[in-house]
Amino acid sequence: MLDDGSVDLKRQLIGRRPERWPVRPFREPAWARQEPTYAECGPALIEAAVKRAGSRPAGNWFVFAAAREVRADRPSGVRVAGRELVAWRGPGGELRVGPGACPHLGAPLAQARVHCGELVCRWHGLRVGGDRPGWTALPSYDDGVLAWVRLDRPGGEPPAERPVVPARPRGTTVDAVATLTGVCEPEDVVANRLDPWHGAWFHPYSFARLRVLSAPRGIDVAEPDDRFVVEVTFRLAGKLGVPVVAEFTCPGPRTVLMTIVDGEGAGSVVETHATPLGPGTDGRPRTAVIEATIAASGRPGFARAARLAPVLRPLMRRAAARLWRDDLAYAERRYALRTDHH
Q1: How many CB atoms within 10 Å of residue 154?
Q2: Torsion angle of C-alpha atoms 266, 268, 274, 275, degrees rounded to 10
Q3: Are 30 and 200 in contact (CB under 8 A)?
Q4: How much is the pTM?
């Protein structure tokens, strides 16, 4: 068993040669007869982990979309922290983000046309792209998988030049991004991810034989030790699955990073970003879960499989969306209990 002080766990495990055949048969009790986990995941433990995550700086950066969703031929309308934004790509493919309302009469720039890298408003032909009175481009960042925007007023922190992008596998990878929206706040999404004990109970179609090997205890935990280490089998079909060891960390206040540290796909990550959208028509907050799965493998055949990324991405998105349909119910319930709106 791994102990709580295994700070060098990732360095120790990543780089092992993969097993010849990663799929293993497994035995497990019936769902109702599996070992209960409620005694291990005390509410205070989860709340303390959420508070520690919330205290980390983000430099006012927010993930708002998958990078490949922002195109050069048409703009995309997005909403972050109650602000209407528009995003598109310039002549060189660079990411551009700015206010979503035309400075002339407020037309939706998400419906504008892109011409020579600028937006042309469809109401009266006003061009925006650089700075104009009433319209200023916002700091933005494309990390190759996700698109970020910096909003200093909603963020309320000292601004950072770049966002905190979690560590990702190098070399050949396959990535996919799933986006869902829930009636909750970012902290409710983070709390869901910092409760790994619910996996085999709440998602028996995906996880089996889940065991939390170590978890941060107490309120004051040094950042290198602030991680959950989990042993779990990803279910493939019937009683066949892929056993791995994964760790969960929070590099920022709205981000939870799961890294596979041992087993098939060691080094692969799942980045869960919780982005506040602002209130809905009912006055309650909406939060977007933007989750990037970045898969890697040391197997010789992975490079060939990566060529099928356009085929694999929809399957990866579908798997993530299925989990998050359940997990958003968890996050929404937590928000309702916190605010007594249920």
Answers
A1: 14
A2: 160
A3: no
A4: 0.90
Give the alpha-carbon dihedral of 155, 160, 161, 164, to 10 degrees: -90
Q: Find out whether 33 and 204 touch, Cβ atoms under 8 Å.
A: no
- Listed in order, the ranges of the chain carrying CATH 2.102.10.10 are 61-155
- Write out pLDDT tens, residues 6-62: 444 444 444 444 456 577 777 777 878 888 889 999 999 999 999 999 999 999 999
Cβ atoms of 273 and 63 within 8 Å: the answer is yes
Give the pLDDT mean for 294-299.
90
CATH of domain 61-155: 2.102.10.10
Tens of pLDDT, residues 82-115: 999 999 999 999 999 999 999 999 999 999 999 9
Kindly state the tokens that stand for 327.
């997990």
Euclidean distance between CA atoms 84 and 149, whole angstroms: 12
Name the segment(s) of the chain with CATH classification 3.30.530.20: 22-57+165-340
What phi, psi does 152 have (nearest 5°)?
-75, -35
Q: Tell me which of 3.30.530.20, 3.30.1050.10, 3.40.720.10, 3.40.50.2000 is the CATH number of domain 22-57+165-340.
A: 3.30.530.20
Strand, coil or helix: 233:
strand
Q: Using only C-alpha atoms, what is the Rg of the chain?
A: 21
Rounded to an integer, the average pLDDT of 225-240 is: 88
**Three-state DSSP class for residue 290:** strand
Cα dihedral sign for 179, 63, 254, 338?
negative
Q: Are 183 and 341 in contact (CB under 8 A)?
A: no
Q: For residue 21, what pLDDT is reported? A: 59
Pair 232, 253: CB distance under 8 Å:
no
Of 90, 92, 96, nearest to 64 by C-alpha is: 96
Closest CA to 197 of 230, 226, 227, 245: 230
